[in-house]
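Data card: per-record layout.
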Amino acid sequence: MKFNRFNSIILIGFLAILGVIIMQFFMLNQAYTFEKKEVENKIYYALLDVVERIYVDNNSELIVNNQIKKVSHNYYVVNVNDVFENNILEFYLKKEFNEVQLGLDFEYAIYDCGSNDMVYGNYIAANGKPEKKCLDCFTKNDDLTYYFAVRFPTLRENYFNSLKYYWIYTIILFVVLIVYVYSVLLLLKQKKYTVLQNDFINNMTHEFKTPLSSILIASNYANSQDEIKKNPKLSKYIQIIINQSNKLNQHIEQILSLAKTSSANVEMNKTEVQLKNTIRLISDNIRLKYAKEITFKNELTKDYSITADDFHFYNIIYNIIDNAVKYSHSNPEITIKNEENDKYITLTFEDNGEGVPPKDLPFIFDKFYRVKRKDSKEIEGFGIGLAYVKKICQLHQWKISAKNTPKGLLVSIEILKTDVHE
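The structure for this 422-residue chain is written out next.
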């Protein structure tokens, strides 16, 4: 895979999200270790206090070291080495666990010397609802005489619940990573399709232009022959062929222009373009194209000189005005104005048509999008003119927008002041 800027950004984004997830797992592990250590300390010191209280009650001296032995993650054996009563032990266990705010379910058993067996004590639930007792979970220790064992059946669940916000954040990060990867795959797939589409359009239009040029050459030659000129019907048919071939040629040129501007290697050959001259030339060409009477109201207050690609600038203004004429009433009236602010010079083109339905307005600059109208079949086009206009504006770093007005549709182009000279 080539590491261009696009691919580099994708890779950096992926590594950034992956790095955050790794850091999150590290923090989760740290939090788990800290939580585990804290809970184990609470259990240890609470059980130690229980032993001390038993010795105080018995007026005995604490002569045993290492009274508390951790057998497993949730099972502790406590060597008392002195007699104690069941109800007193339970009282002290509840009291000490509450003091350290342990908040865990626990169950305990006491070793009975007489029966040489572990006698189950009770299950104490933190929420007052005891779980299923585990009578077989307590094992004897042959090295001790007076001892009891405590088990915490919900210890693992407690760890998970304590770190639930860490887990939620980790899951969210995983979802973000999955969505990111999926979006990138879709983007790459779409990019591939776009390249194939552009290649297809370029090849298709190229193949069309060769026979079309031959048709136009042959038709123009035939139209100049005396035999055709003397026959009104043949002359009319030849003229239809020429007119329709010219229209088809215009459509092919539009498709080629759009495909070219979609390429990442488009270069703008910027020169100084006189705005009023360009609009005057476009107005004359539009009048020649349409048989109906067209009124142009040129209300530009200044004759701006614009730094732009002459060819593409002509095309975007032509497309906007051509659309305005096509979708206006029988006597189109196009008003061209300019506005000015601190950053932009805004050119506006307003027609006297029906405007665009509000649901379609956000999409009129999308490629191949056509607004559904009653006269759609009569109005020619592929829905690529305004997409081309938007692309050229973006390449010039200008802004284009459209909105409905009481009069018709108004299209605005915001040109950077740095590109405008008076």
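Known properties of this structure: The radius of gyration is 42 Å. The chain is about 50% helix and 20% strand.

See the next section for split statistics.
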